[in-house]
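[Q] Does anyone have a clean structure-token version of this?
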Amino acid sequence: MSKTSIYGLTYEQLTDWLVERGQKKFRADQVWNWVYKKRVGQFAEMKNVNKETIELLEENFVLHTLDEAVKQESKDGTIKFLFRLADGNLIETVLMRFNYGLSVCVTTQVGCNIGCTFCASGLLKKSRDLSSGEIVEQIMNVQKHLDAMGEDERVSHIVVMGIGEPFDNFNNLMDFIYVVNDDRGLNIGARHITVSTSGLAHKIYEFADTGTQVNLAISIHAPNNELRSRIMKINKAFPIEKLMKSVDYYLEKTNRRITYEYIMLRDVNDHREEAVQLAKLLKNHRHLAYVNLIPYNSVDEHNQYQRSESETIQAFFETLKENGINAGVRWENGADIDAACGQLRSKQIKKQKESRKTKAV
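[A] Here you go.
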């Protein structure tokens, strides 16, 4: 019988699982405390948990499914981890330091099928979804890294913006959120968690209906269908009209601000014309809209795209402000390492393939 990650269970799921096997409900509190507060490395370390419960856990669950393959540290404190999953696949997780706390960017899929033409994440197609446990364990591994540094730091914010489309792995995403948000465990506030989608409109409706206080970000990247379809093939399935209809529903249901991610590609989507169109697109709910302008991190395989000039980015920002849209510029963290999402993973897999070819010769 294959074992699954203990991190994949919400508190309620763990409680039900233990009770169904004849254990007292309070055992879930004990186990949860040892796993998330004390962050034990093996079940046998749970000192006040009875032997029967520990044996049950050891027979059915594991605490480790990820191994650190590569770790890159930037001068600005950003750390990019490349983790190897139990099946050998590689994923990226990034720790970023900000004045408001420590934020971790997590991955939700092995590869990505969304097909954004500028993105390193999509260089390798999706092979599978991550389990909720594999997503949670990314946070746990980063937190354990911080614990080992001995500086009493904790992960305070999470962005679900790594490799993959989170809403294409919706159920596992939501279980992940429930686990990390639970105040009996990591206790990361819902308003400190942001989920980014490329625009799966039908899932935005579903996300609105969950009633969570988690923040929503939408990768918009272009203000019209012609341009957006050219750089994001997902727009053919969910064109801007359909996307904005789901946005209307989300705002009506939650009254929560949405961040619109907009990557700045030189001479592609960075003209004043696009800025004016974007402002017009968002004008009906501009009080609940924030545009995040993102200078592009170049990717070797997508050399048709370059970063917009700083002056162009500033002009785009000012045009949005003139038209009543709140906006800001997100300068990247980890500029001296493989900063683009998916870049480290792609390079590592390429190295492995070249190594195998060399050995074959």
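[Q] Thanks! Anything notable?
[A] Residues 4-62 form a domain with the DNA polymerase; domain 1 fold (CATH 1.10.150.530).
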